[in-house]
Structure formats: C-alpha cells, structure tokens
Amino acid sequence: MSTAGNITGMPRDDRSNFTISLNRKQPLLSYRAIEPQDIPQICGFTLSETELFYLSPEADYPLTPAQLRKTSRGRLEPTVVLDDGEVVGFASLYNFRDGETCFIGNVVVRPDRRVRGVGAYLVETMVALAFGKHRFNEVRVSCFNGNITALLLYAKLGFTPYAIEQRRDKRNNTVALMHLKITKR
Ligand SMILES: CC(C)(COP(=O)(O)OP(=O)(O)OC[C@H]1O[C@@H](n2cnc3c(N)ncnc32)[C@H](O)[C@@H]1OP(=O)(O)O)[C@@H](O)C(=O)NCCC(=O)NCCS
Questions:
Q1: Does the beta carbon of 180 sit less than 6 angstroms from any atom of ligand 1?
Q2: Ligand 1 mean position to 152 CA, how many Å?
Q3: Cα–chain-centroid distance for residue 120?
Q4: Less packed terminus of the chain by CB within 10 Å, N or C?
Q5: Partners of 83 in beta bridges
Q6: Which atom of ligand 1 is nearest to the CA of 109?
Q7: Which tens digit of pLDDT belongs to each residue from 2-60?
Q8: Which CATH number fits domain 7-136: 3.30.2170.10, 3.30.450.40, 3.40.50.720, 3.40.630.30?
Q9: What is the pLDDT of residues 146-170, one digit of tens each?
C-alpha cells in the first residue's frame, strides 16, 4: 500500500501497535520514542558537513551525542524508525508553541537504508503524530534549496511551499531556506 496522499487517513497514534505497510520498496517498518542508547547511532547517520547543515544548521560536523541531546531539548516526539529492530531513521517536532502548527525537524535516514521508503515512512509518521495525537492543524518543514532529495520527498507527501528565506551556510554562501506545509483535512 502506498500511503502517499493519505497522511490524514492514517491511524491515530497508538505506540503499542502502529506498524504500517508503506510501499513496495520497504514493506514493514515500525516506530517508537527514542531511547538513550539510540543517540550514538543516530549521530552516525549524517555523512557530511552539508548533510548535517540540512538537518541541524546550528550543529558542527561531526554530530556528537551532546549536540544531538542539545538540539532535541524541548522538542516533541523524538522518534526513531525501526526496520527489523534496527534503528534506521530519526525525526522530532519543534516550534509548536501556538498549538496550531508545528515543524518536523532533524529528519535523517541511515545512509545504507536510503531510497527504500524509510524517509517517507518517517515523515508520514511524524505528520500522523502531529495531526492525530497532538491535534495540530498544520505541519511545516524547512528545507535548504540544495537538498533536492528532501524537497522531492516532502513534495511527494503533499507538502507545498509557502515562503523562501535568505540564509547563510557554514561557509558563508547565500542559500535559500524553503518553507513547506501540509494542512489537516
Ligand atoms: C532526505 C532523506 C531523509 C530521504 O530519505 P529516504 O529514506 O532516502 O527517502 P525515501 O526512500 O522514502 O524517498 C521518498 C521520496 O524522496 C525522494 N527521493 C529520495 N531519495 C532520492 C534521491 N536520491 N534522488 C531524488 N529523489 C529522492 C523521491 O521523491 C522519493 O520518492 P520515490 O521513491 O517515489 O521516487 C535522506 O536522504 C537523508 O537522511 N538525507 C540526509 C539528511 C537530510 O537531508 N534531511 C532532511 C532535512 S530537511
């Protein structure tokens, strides 16, 4: 079953049994809240300074457990995706203060498990948690212009752009930060 375009139709959050069949590439994945022992593994998921900038612009490469703990502080639903018990993806929710909207951040998939549907499952799971469990009405993501893979992933899942912001990368080059959103139906 492909879940693209069906985000708001997903089950309400139920950590005890929420396992969905995502698509032809990755038939069975599950998720759970992050546990302390997951943190060092997740730090190894970013392959380069550029990738780390994409998922955590304030962090310095290589990502360390201390940086990940700091960036996760105060966030909602720090969540890992499991494939047969192995941690293969991570994301969390942030900027949720108004109770209406929240952002998905720190989205990352283990390098050797990319392009198999894990990223789509991860983002759909975070959207389902935001709409279902937390009752937000809009979910947003921010994505740098060079990150074509992530932009296409978000577009495939129904996110649409609503703003573009000028930023500087770690080498002081001008980059565009694209803001995208999906609204609860
Ligand atoms: C972005 C990222 C999370 C995608 O994870 P993934 O597991 O590879 O994604 P999926 O396999 O679920 O792909 C879903 C869609 O994303 C897009 N996509 C994924 N990999 C792609 C690639 N190499 N080239 C182009 N599009 C790609 C496609 O639209 C794909 O849909 P399709 O398979 O039907 O064509 C992963 O590449 C990653 O961790 N990147 C580094 C961190 C990062 O950039 N995070 C995002 C911050 S905004």
A1: no
A2: 7
A3: 9
A4: C
A5: 86
A6: 39
A7: 333 334 334 334 333 334 444 545 558 999 999 999 999 999 999 999 999 999 999 99
A8: 3.40.630.30
A9: 999 999 999 999 999 999 999 999 9
